[in-house]
Amino acid sequence: MQETVYRAWMKCSKLKDPDHFVPWLFRILINCCIDEQRRRKRLRPMPMEPHDSSSEMVNVYKLDLEEAMDRMKPKYRHALMLKYYQEMTVPEIARILDKPEGTIKTWIHQGLKQLRGQMERGGEVYHG
Q1: pTM of the predicted protein model
Q2: What pLDDT score does 47 carry?
Q3: Which positions ≥6 away from 75 have C-beta within 8 Å?
Q4: What is the number of other CB atoms lying within 10 angstroms of the CB of residue 32?
């Protein structure tokens, strides 16, 4: 978030239409996240320390969903995150990702299809 605010502050003079501030800011946020993912891929993973018994319990279904989302193509993941986590409309997502609405609808449909397939492969079908 700090990197997003920093980049937006440094480039705010280049924003031509103030009405498009929110989509512009989301685009910067998405680019920051993509940059961070690339940076993490270059780093060697550190060995994980064992969790102690007082660590927070995490819902298994949520972990499965997060793992499934991590395995998807970024374009599908971004469209689904904006649609279902940020509760944005298709036109808003199209503006943020700078793609036609039809493309966004396809990405959402394909992303959901991939999620269903990955969630069903585990032997159980999760409904919820």
Answers
A1: 0.54
A2: 46
A3: 97, 107
A4: 18
CA distance 40 to 33: 11
Cβ neighbours for 102, distance < 8 A, ≥ 6 positions apart: none
> Are the beta carbons of 4 and 27 closer than 8 angstroms?
no
Residue 57: left if φ>0, alpha if ψ -120 to 50, beta else—which one?
beta
CA atoms of 96 and 104, how far apart (whole Å): 11
Cβ atoms 27, 96 nearer than 8 A: yes
Task: Give the C-alpha separation, 109 to 118, whole Å.
Answer: 14
pLDDT confidence of residue 40 = 73
Which carries the bigger pLDDT value, residue 94 or residue 35?
94
Please classify residue 82 by burial: count the beta carbons closer than 10 Å to its beta carbon, then call 0-12 exposed, 13-18 middle and 19+ buried.
buried
Query: Do 23 and 92 meet the contact criterion of CB atoms below 8 Å apart?
Result: yes
Q: What are phi and psi of 115, to 5 degrees?
A: -60, -45
- Per-position DSSP letters for 55-106, written without gaps between them: SPP--HHHHHHHHHHHHS-HHHHHHHIIIIIS---HHHHHHHHT--HHHHHH
